[in-house]
């Protein structure tokens, strides 16, 4: 039986949830306070770039299973389930800011006049779902609703694929009654034998933080090993590959680079440290992961400096890649930002390119030059610094780049180029976790 579902918040998570649940055959209404966004979504414009999103948005709008509104009242009219997917950004002190959830609860409570399952999709600190239950109970008869914690594990760029083929679905609950509803919503996932983890609210909340912090730890770990590999003359890729052959380690997330970014890892690791502080539990390991990540970014600036003879003053640097990873236009917590800021402070002139994220990055840093393509960026540059692993940078025409540059130097912070080829083309090349540039090559 298709269900009637409201999804509050149409950001990455909310919108993917909307189109995914509608595609499962449910009737879904997405709610957002942003009038312009609602208009664009209703017209089939996904607003953000996400592979496959536009197709599923249009298909489900056309099938009449999906609609968008600014009115919570309209969305809630016959809804059996409401997903909360509003933002939980980072506060100044690193804690998660729950004010958007609070505002939604205030608006939602007076509208609950029939049994409703309230599902939290947003990443929220441990204790939040219990608090949501308490807050709502102050305003509504507790027999009229249940609260479920259903954290998302979507990767940007693969959000649609991850929605339809998750490696697990985590459901934190208290009342057995929700099981039937959640089963019904995710029925298609049962058919493909997706594992379901049924647990308490607190367990579900902590699974999300622990999973993200663990992945971030793997990245900071391999980055530090990469730094050591550079010093001792070892190759981090061979190390990561051999480490990954041990099934207990797994080869995934052992790719070195300029440090992790994005909307989840930086925010969630900081929030986890705060949760630990609140409960008096030592999470120094996670704190160190954050510190190592910041240091990794600055190490890239130091590498650039060394490659250019010790100073960036007046040097022209082509930064290729501004998004926090490939296949997205998202620049939240992107390593390119602190790296470019630091280089500008050291007197460098930066000309940047990104296939998708230039518009977003321009809002963060309007004062640098932006080039139409990677070759224009490289024109007259002393150094090409690759910051995002876009495929088009893997296939750079190095001869053409070499002709355009003032000095032939490449800092490849994602190891997307073949060092041998780059050197044969006459470049001084440096990656991460491989041979270090020591003044001559
Ligand atoms: C992540 C989680 O994967 C997802 O489960 C969660 O729900 C949200 O956060 P996402 O932020 O989209 O997803 O990006 P992801 O592909 O995981 O990469 C995060 C960051 O780590 C990127 O900056 C990426 O470049 C970096 N990274 C990833 C590495 O530096 N090395 C790696 O081996 C893997």
Structure overview:
This protein is α/β, with parallel strands linked by helices and 441 residues long. The protein has 2 domains: 4-199, NAD(P)-binding Rossmann-like Domain (Rossmann fold, 3-Layer(aba) Sandwich); 200-441, NAD(P)-binding Rossmann-like Domain (Rossmann fold, 3-Layer(aba) Sandwich), CATH 3.40.50.720. The protein is built from 19 helices and 14 strands. The strands form 3 sheets. The protein has a 6-stranded parallel beta sheet, sandwiched between helices. A 6-stranded parallel beta sheet has the order 11-10-9-12-13-14. The chain has a two-stranded parallel ribbon with strand order 7-8. The protein is elongated, with a radius of gyration of 24 Å. It starts with a strand and ends in an 11-residue tail after the last strand. 45% of the residues are buried. The mean pLDDT is 96. Uridine-5'-diphosphate-xylopyranose binds at residues 152-156, 212, 215, 219, 253-255, 257, 260-265, 324-325. Its EC number is 1.1.1.22. NAD(+) binds at residues 32, 37, 88, 123, 156, 267, 332. Pathway: Nucleotide-sugar biosynthesis; UDP-alpha-D-glucuronate biosynthesis; UDP-alpha-D-glucuronate from UDP-alpha-D-glucose: step 1/1.
Averaged pLDDT? 96
What is the CA-based Rg, rounded?
A: 24 Å
CATH architecture of the largest domain: 3-Layer(aba) Sandwich
Distance between the termini: 67 Å
Whole-number tally of structural domains = 2
How is the largest sheet built, in terms of strand order? 3-2-1-4-5-6
Largest β-sheet summary:
6 strands, parallel
Give the CATH class of the largest domain.
Answer: Alpha Beta
**Unreliable segments of 5+ consecutive residues:** none
Overall shape: it is elongated
The helix content is: 40-55%
Tally of DSSP helical segments = 19
Q: Assess the beta-strand content as a share of residues.
A: 5-15%
